[in-house]
Amino acid sequence: MSSRLTLLLLLVVVFGLFIRENLTPHPDHIYQLTDGRIDMCLSCHQQERLDAAHDAKVLGCAVCHLGNSLTIDKAKAHTGMVKNPGDLRVVDRTCGLEGCHAIDVPKLKKALMATNRGILATMRFYWGEAPDQKSDLSVEELMTTGQNSLSLDYYRKLCGSCHLWKQKNDLPKTPEYSSYNEKGGGCTACHSVPGKAPAGEDPAKIHPLIIKKIPSENCIRCHNRSGRIGLSYQGLYESEGYGAPLKDGKRAGKQLADGRFVLELEDDIHHHQGMACIDCHNREEIMGDGNRYAHYEEQLEVSCATCHSATPGTTRKQRHLNNLVKEGKDFLLVGKLDGKKHPLHQPRPGDCDYPGHRRLSCESCHSSWAPQCYGCHVKLDRRETHLDKLTLKETPGWWEEGRSWLRYEKPTLAIWDSKVVIVTPGCQDIVTVIGADGKPEKQFNSLTMAALNPHTIQKRSRTCQDCHTSGKTVGLGEGSLWREQGKWRFTSQSQGLETAAGPTPPLDAYVDINGKPLQKSARDNLRPFNGEELQRILRVGLCLECHKNLTDPAWRNYRPGSSCPVYQE
Fold it and tell me: What is the 3 state secondary structure string of 498-561?
């Protein structure tokens, strides 16, 4: 090759490189963060607005979203990038970095909202797949091992979208899953809210805001099924699916995003006063304290007495509330969202400390209503397929469930350890499995009552009559209660259900008039009132016709054996 041709080719190559260099977009400068790191993501992403602690000029983009921050090539920059840094699958490399939230991430992964350990252990126990509720099985383990069983398949397909391992917007974009797609996301399940889009901009392209002041809406997004405490706290009661009662010939009440109808009842007094969930529940209850608890009562540490006592502010685990202050002689709880100061009052002397009331939990008297879902009719049809919410794959077996009825009035009371608490159905499973041949393969019933703090606290308490003269309240269920020839008699309004696995007791009956349990209990130390306790409670009801409240002198020295000079039993 001649030297002239070589030179010509060299000039062509140089000219081509010159043209490419001039046609290639270049950033206006090198983007250097306050700590000296280079993050060229900012050459494109200049409009994103975050909170001060996560400002892009301070942290950059790649420290949270990963990817390659040293290139201006879009494809290369986005290689290995994650959309949601809070996802528990990547959080050790993002939020959990040393210098960020390294202490919190390991705790969060052990917390119940991430493990769902209690739900999984309890379901397996209820359905006879485990000898107790102590098994240490987690969502993460189900995802990595593929472990399955009848109860776990039910969880995977009907319950598997309420945990922190779920990824946001991972389900099909259909109305059926619209409310479920918002759930999950690890850290961002709680610590993010939508950013505000300027006029004319697509809200979907606006970076979410990272927050530490968690609005109750983020909590209620998940806590609106099962115990339904998120709904109840707002005064919303899930009504029957057909929107009854009707009003002017049309469906009444509100309708949630997932299609459920709700009626408006009394909201919890704390909600009425403008308090958010995080005003009561501390970070260790929500995000975990490093222990891998089996059940919610082990992780919770705040109770009514944490605030409503002579020396408020300390939890049962000896942690101090960081939003409680003292001004003069008064203790105040400061709202974490709005800074509003709420005076703390001690229980009223003479009522709460009355000797006969010492076993009562605060909610057993001050909860005006509780959601009660009776009869969970569950069917598995092996001829169909259903979406596994953990693997996001269709697998054999279609689950569907229904219920017998819903109620809210006269919450039932029982004994948990040494305290009187509210119990509700949880769950009353009536299970049928249809085999591949279309014939029943398995049928069984598992009726259980569980303790619940319904979050419907009112300033006033339930009336004396509501507890001492009501068969429903003491666990007998709705029906007729009377005394005849020195003995208490009770006839249930319901006769129970005739099922393929045999008859059930009345679904609202936890115990019979003699103190014999009719349903299982969700904990070993939870039980209905025994025969002696029923006799003592109902005997007080006989006196209430004349001695209507605790200010009556008759109650000052009342004992179970006290006799009445007028009424002959």
Answer: EECCEECCCCCCCECCCCCECCEECCCCEECCCHHHHHHHHHHHHHCCCCCCCCCHHHCCCCCC
Q: 315: which 2 tokens?
A: 């939890």
pLDDT score of 245: 62
Cβ partners under 8 Å of residue 199, min gap 6: none
| pLDDT for position 252 | 65
Nearest residue to 286 (alpha-carbon basis) of 273, 270, 302, 271: 302
Q: By C-alpha distance, which of 343, 317, 316, 362 is closest to 454? A: 362
Cβ distance 143 to 165 under 8 Å? yes
Number of domains in the chain: 2
- Return d(Cα 536, Cα 528) in angstroms, integer: 14
Q: Which residues of the chain have pLDDT under 70?
A: 1, 17-18, 20-26, 204, 242-246, 252-253, 569
Q: Which of 105, 121, 136 is the endpoint of a domain?
A: 105
Ordered alpha helix ranges (H), 44-181: 56-59, 62-65, 74-78, 104-110, 112-115, 117-126, 139-145, 150-154, 178-181
Do 207 and 49 contact (CB within 8 A), yes or no?
Answer: yes
> Do 92 and 268 form a contact (C-beta atoms < 8 A)?
no
386 domain residue, yes or no: yes
Residue 520 lies in a domain: yes
| Residue 235, helix vs strand vs coil | coil
How far is it, in rounded angstroms, from Cα 57 to Cα 73?
A: 20
Q: How many CB atoms lie within 10 A of CB 264?
A: 12
Residue 371 and residue 425: Cα distance in Å, rounded? 9
End residue of a domain, out of 105, 138, 157: 105
Return the H-helix or E-strand segment holding 297: helix 296-299
Cα distance between residue 458 and residue 304, in whole Å = 12
The DSSP 8-state label assigned to residue 166 in this structure reads S
Q: Rounded to the nearest 5°, which phi and psi values hold at 75?
A: -65, -45
pTM: 0.91
